[in-house]
Amino acid sequence: MSEKWYWTVESTNETVRIGLTAKTLEELGEISFVDLPKVGTILADGDSLASVEATKAVLDFDTPFAGTVIAINTAAIDTPTTLNQASHDNNWLVDLKK
Known about the structure:
There is one protein chain. 12% of the residues lie in helices and 43% in strands. By secondary structure, the chain is mostly beta strands. The strands form 2 sheets. The chain has a 5-stranded antiparallel sheet with strand order 1-2-8-7-4. A hairpin with a 4-residue loop joins strand 1 (6-10) and strand 2. The radius of gyration is 12 Å and the shape is globular.
């Protein structure tokens, strides 16, 4: 998937939080399942970042850049509908360390 599907917020320690844009959420419909990589996973540019099942589609999202997964949104795994919220506090997928 293209980077247009993501929002990113970079912190000062080369960590980037990645989430789904409002447009992506609108196009997917309500999210019912999400599969995220384990913390510690090293991803190359273009590797699978997340698999998302929603009312309108089932999609695999590729990572927009290489990095190591340092955190995942466990709330999204437990309750995938939290990703449907517009708040960046809730609809993020992973934190990657560049």
